[in-house]
Amino acid sequence: MTINYLKKKFPPPPFDNEFASMLYFRSLYDGNHAEIFPRAKMVGAERRSKWRRKSYKEWEQTHETIQSNHPYIVANFSCLVAEVPADLLNRALGNVSADIEDGEELEFVASVVLASKVNDKIWAAVTQQQVDGTIAYRIRRNDRGRVWFEWLMGDQYLPHDDDQGADIAWIEVWGEEGNKKRFLRVERQMLTSDGLQVSQLVFKMESETVNEEVDVREYAQEYGVDVPEDVELPGVTELLCGSVPNEETLGSPRGRSALRNIDVLQEEINWTITRDSIVFEKHGKPKLAIPRALWDTVANQNMNHYGGRFVRNADLEVVSYDEKNGAVPTYITWDAKTEQSFAHVTRLIQYMLAVSKTSLQAAGLEEAKGQSGVALLYLWIQSVIKTESTQSKFDSAIKSAIRKCIILENALGGKEMEVKDPVVEWGDMLPKAESERDREEMEKYAAGVQSLETTVRRMHPDWSEDAIESEIQKIQDEQAATRMNPTYSQPPKVTL
What we know:
- The chain has 15 helices and 15 strands.
- The chain has helices at residues 15-30, 33-36, 40-44, 78-92, 104-116, 118-132, 216-223, 263-283, 292-306, 339-355, 373-379, 381-413, 434-446, 452-459, 465-483; strands at 45-53, 59-67, 93-97, 134-141, 147-152, 157-159, 165-174, 181-191, 195-206, 209-214, 231-234, 241-245, 287-289, 330-332, 423-426.
- Strands 6, 7, 8, 9, 10 and 11 form a six-stranded antiparallel β-sheet that branches. The protein has a three-stranded antiparallel β-sheet with strand order 5-4-12. A two-stranded antiparallel ribbon has the order 1-2.
- The termini are far apart.
- 22% of the residues are buried.
């Protein structure tokens, strides 16, 4: 069933609550905690007492709420939870190629990988998937025949209830400040009995409500927008878009944010650190201590002059000097015991990392040194296990996206390429010393479980294809020369 946007708020139910949750977790990741946490607003306002002149000789005490100079301190560990899997996968993703040695498919897949910038955008895609709980992708083709896939935000992908279609929806704003016009753009993909139908829709919006549908061609001409033509692809049996959910359940099939259980802990960390800074600000500065008799003297003078017993800072700028005891007023400092407060923050961080399945070494709370790559793996095992689950999802998504690129090229480009998944190579998530890595690769090659090409490619991941082929040829030539034996073996002697 298609989604009806007319005369409804965007996003429509049931996506509205889900997208609102995405915006919340984005603010949590970006560190905009003062906007989403209630106690942050308590820091900026402070209730103070002040003296106000009531008459010529009479004063009264009043109270007012003023903006204090105490900042709300943000120690954003939420971004760490989302970025650690992205860092590990960004390091692990290797070469993406067609599952053949040569041919048209190999060149096409290489062009798609280059145009899609698979390796360059994997970090951003994984991070956004961790924050939003899902990320989407769609296949594109321009007039020059260039085919690629692009990652989309999770709140741009609206699947249909029957799984036979999906909408890619986003809002475009035109006009100057004070006269802005908002439009809802929709790319709708629907599977029919004949194939796949892709159509473009434009709606005019008033505030958050979708008002009326606009002619696509008129909209494109008025605002200079490149809107693709509607197209029908006979024989295509799958959508040219998809999503990558994170930790989905039966109740949340579109995925859940990796930050969903740590927002309260993050707020408590911020508040504890902010409270300590306020205490230091108030009590860390030296205070002037005066004898009770001196305070009474100044207060009595103010009582006679202003009708109230109080002491101002200005009243003590000049004080009497006691010849016997010297200058009696002295400055005192406050000695705070903050060990328990710091220990509380550390415990909160440990709870946060445990709930989010993030290793302590990733946050720098424990030393991450190992004698070997295996030892380092066990130190990071919690984060690695979590990231391996995310890796399997992105492995399937990248393969599916490139396979759909082949389908689109066959449908629009008149090609007859074989439709199948490419090969996605994944390396180690954690760094190893070059000597240890090279030794492992050589042992695999010597044992006959790995080819020479794979060995050279893994030992030199930054080499070009020409350099790798040249190195392989040199090794094969040297091996052939070594196998040559100049001594001719004589046949065995026989006795007749």
